[in-house]
Amino acid sequence: QKEVEQDPGPLSVPEGAIVSLNCTYSNSAFQYFMWYRQYSRKGPELLMYTYSSGNKEDGRFTAQVDKSSKYISLFIRDSQPSDSATYLCAIWGNNRLAFGKGNQVVVIP
Amino acid sequence: NAGVTQTPKFRVLKTGQSMTLLCAQDMNHEYMYWYRQDPGMGLRLIHYSVGEGTTAKGEVPDGYNVSRLKKQNFLLGLESAAPSQTSVYFCASSYGGTGSYEQYFGPGTRLTVT
After folding, report:
1. How many CB pairs under 8 A join A and B?
2. How many Å apart are CA B41 and CA B49, to the nearest integer?
3. What is the C-alpha to C-alpha distance for residues A44 and A54, in angstroms, rounded to an integer?
């Protein structure tokens, strides 16, 4: 079983819609939970992180962690064309990051 | 600050050729990493370093070697390139310890092995 599972299917939404992305993980020892954003032909950049169960908001972005279910989510409200990118979940543990496969999100104007 | 830079940006190799990818960071980070990214596979860790003079294997180390002779540089070597090593290679760096969840990535090197 992979450490982080993320269904890599692409997602197209109209501008203004809510984008919902999620991942599951297998090792309950992992401590930090991240979402990285990667624009086309660029390196990933950290978007949000959290280390506890619950919600964390940053503007239009909300990261949610449920440690009991080993489930992490990212919600993007009022999506904009500039949000078009690949979003990778990642978890930190054992001195390294384990990444999900990423979801390509396209926001259509 | 340039952040994390990678050289070269693109390269085409023939099977069996060798090459070295250079990563440099100007943030005084302790930890550095090499990843490869393939369609449908996500980012996979090749090797990493937790300080000058140290290296360790990641998830997919076979066919690669690394060296960290200076704190700011991390080199990735392919001794005998194979078509399976066609990929986009990313270098990253971080402060180290529990702060290492925040990694700063370079722009990537696109390598094609024919």
Report:
1. 52
2. 23
3. 24
Decide if pLDDT at B68 tops 90: yes
Rounding to the nearest 10 degrees, give the CA dihedral for residues B72, A97, B91, B81. Answer: 120
Residue B16: how many other CB atoms lie within 10 Å:
10
- Cβ-contact A10, A103 below 8 angstroms: yes
Window B:44-73, CB contacts with A under 8 Å: 44-45, 48, 50, 58
DSSP 8-state assignment for residue B85? G
User: pLDDT tens, A31-46?
Assistant: 889 999 999 999 999 9
Could you tell me the CA-to-CA distances from A6 to A30, A71, A77, B40 in Å, in that order? 16, 10, 20, 10
* Chain B residues in contact with A96 (beta carbon < 8 A): 33, 45, 48, 58, 100
CB within 8 Å of A49: residues ≥ 6 apart: A32, A33, A34, A35, A63, B101, B102
In angstroms, the CA A4 to CA A30 distance is 11
pLDDT exceeds 80 at position A95: no
How crowded is residue A13: how many other Cβ atoms within 10 Å of its Cβ?
A: 17
Residue A1 has pLDDT above 70, yes or no: no
Phi, psi of A73, rounded to the nearest 5 degrees: -135, 155
Please state whether the peptide bond connecting residue A14 to the residue before it is cis, i.e. omega within 30 degrees of 0.
no
